[in-house]
Amino acid sequence: MDLDALNAAFALPNVLRFVEGQGGLTLIEVDNGLARATLTAHGAQVLSYRPAEARDDLLFVSERAYFAPDQEIKGGVPICWPWFGRDPDDPERIIHGFARLRDWSVPACEMRPDGAIWVRFGLADDESTRALRPHYFNLWVEVTVGATLSVSLTTRNAGDEPFTITQGLHAYFKIGDPAQTHVLGLDGCRYLDKAADAPPDAAGVQSGSLGLEAEVNRIYESVPQCLTIEDKALSRRIRIESHNSHTCVVWNPWIVGSRSMPDLDDEDYRRFVCVETVNAASEVIRVAPRQEVRIGAEYRLESL
Ligand SMILES: O=P(O)(O)OC[C@H]1O[C@H](O)[C@H](O)[C@@H](O)[C@@H]1O
């Protein structure tokens, strides 16, 4: 990407600049008084967000994450599209779709009246995407870095045939200690249990808050709009407000899972939990010709 051109168009002295990061990836560094954040055009991914008064980052990024043009980055808020989980057309394909492997363009970037920085990333179909899915599309990821962090993903069907997608904002939240972390707001929600030792069609109903004591890999259905991660070790709450999503994936790979993933440290299961705003499982989204659909989430940190 042409960093000089991006900086000439959008840089704001001491507030926003484009730099080259590890693996040659394009990074956007933001420090606007409300928060500090790092975004990358690779996958249109937020890598880091820390509000001005916060001690710790909202997000986790693995120290073993790959930073390379054709790899996904383990951490931050990966964008999963046009399939979430396994591709129903071909389960051998990369999990969670191709959007997070691509370099997105940065067509717009501005400071809002309240001082927040808004960035728009764009991606459109090309020969290689049409080889995987024969769809004509425009995608936008919009990120707002302010007193809260907002991420949204808009899909526009640019063709004449309807298509279906599943998708997700696969947020990796930093935690201080799994034993002192709970996910609140899922009480009474049905879930599909995808943990490695669960039988193929295992399901359950959440009772009370969800603690982290073993592998968790659950797809919760009909979830409320607002969920909370309470983290006593970091003395904070993370509020997650989702839009156009009624499904939430909670994932912590625990010890065996962390050890099995080359881009995670063996101990990383102690350092994050994923609480993902998704359209997945039975929540498949149909996009009619010329129609736009949007999924989004706003993340807010509060002290305990
Ligand atoms: O592809 P990754 O970023 O490693 O994420 C991988 C994980 O994502 C989701 O949370 C799924 O529910 C898990 O089954 C999967 O293992």
Question: Can you lay out the helices and strands and say which pair or pack?
Answer:
Blueprint: H1 3-10, E1 16-20, E2 26-31, E3 35-40, E4 45-51, E5 79-80, E6 105-111, E7 117-124, H2 127-132, E8 137-145, E9 149-157, E10 163-165, E11 167-169, E12 172-174, E13 181-184, E14 190-193, E15 203-205, E16 210-211, E17 216-220, E18 226-231, E19 236-243, E20 247-252, H3 254-260, E21 272-279, E22 285-287, E23 292-303
Antiparallel strand pairs: 1-2, 2-3, 3-4, 5-11, 6-7, 7-8, 8-9, 9-23, 10-22, 11-21, 12-21, 13-16, 13-18, 14-15, 14-17, 17-20, 18-19, 19-23, 20-21
6-O-phosphono-alpha-D-glucopyranose (G6P) is lined by residues 74, 78, 95-96, 170, 194, 217, 249, 251, 274, 276.
Question: Short summary of the structure?
Answer:
The protein is mainly beta and 304 residues long.
Q: Can you characterise this structure?
A:
Its EC number is 5.1.3.15. Keywords: Isomerase. It catalyses: alpha-D-glucose 6-phosphate = beta-D-glucose 6-phosphate. The chain is mainly β and 304 residues long. 7% of the residues lie in helices and 42% in strands. It is built from 3 helices and 23 strands. The protein has a 9-stranded antiparallel sheet with strand order 6-7-8-9-23-19-18-13-16, with no helix packed on it. Strands 5, 11, 12, 14, 15, 17, 20 and 21 form an 8-stranded antiparallel sheet that branches. A hairpin with a 3-residue loop joins strand 2 and strand 3. It starts with a helix and ends with a strand. It binds 6-O-phosphono-alpha-D-glucopyranose.
- What is the CATH C-level name? Mainly Beta
Report the bound ligands by name, code or SMILES: 6-O-phosphono-alpha-D-glucopyranose
Provide the number of structural domains.
Answer: 1
State the share of residues found in helices, binned by percent: under 10%
Rg over CA atoms: 19 Å
List the total number of helices.
3
Give the N-terminus to C-terminus distance in angstroms.
42 Å
Q: What characterizes the major β-sheet?
A: 9 strands, antiparallel
Share of residues in strands? 35-45%
Provide the low-confidence segments as ranges: none
The general outline is: globular
The CATH architecture comes to Distorted Sandwich
Kindly report the spatial arrangement of strands forming the biggest sheet: 6-7-8-9-23-19-18-13-16
Provide mean pLDDT, rounded.
Answer: 97
Q: What is CATH's topology name? A: Beta-galactosidase, Chain A, domain 5
Number of strand elements: 23
SSE arrangement, N to C: HEEEEEEEHEEEEEEEEEEEEEHEEE
Q: Which structural class should the secondary elements be placed in?
A: mainly beta
Catalytic activity: alpha-D-glucose 6-phosphate = beta-D-glucose 6-phosphate
EC number: 5.1.3.15
Protein name: Putative glucose-6-phosphate 1-epimerase
Keywords: Isomerase
